[in-house]
Amino acid sequence: QVQLVESGGGLVQAGGSLRLSCAASGRSFNNNNMAWFRQAPGKERDFVAGISWMGRNAVYADSVKGRFSISRDAAKNTVYLQMNSLKPEDTAVYSCGTDLYTAAQNMGNMNPKLGYWGQGTQVTVSS
Questions:
Q1: CA-to-CA distance for 61 and 101, rounded, in angstroms?
Q2: Residue range 63-88: mean pLDDT, rounded
Q3: Which one, of 127, 126, 122, 115, lies nearest residue 31 by Cα?
Q4: Is the CB of residue 7 less than 8 Å from the CB of residue 20?
């Protein structure tokens, strides 16, 4: 059974940092571009960051550029999201995964309704 399990979320004050992890099991995603999305209450799920299959290319939503950093560890089949200078508007459920087909140059358009995605981890930033 293929699973993606996110961890590392929690409650943090504005200006603080968190590091999210997304561990995959059941198959390797080392040949897939991977992404983090987030969904705030009452809002659509939005793209946050994407990383190419070899980890050489990364793209970010404008709202997180300069504050968030995505990385991956092929040996651990894991993707990370380092979040710094957190703001209350970053509060959301963060999930990771891949739609399996979006090219690296279009990761911002990855479809979170296709492919494999985790259940998410809650990030709450207090002001």
A1: 20
A2: 97
A3: 115
A4: yes
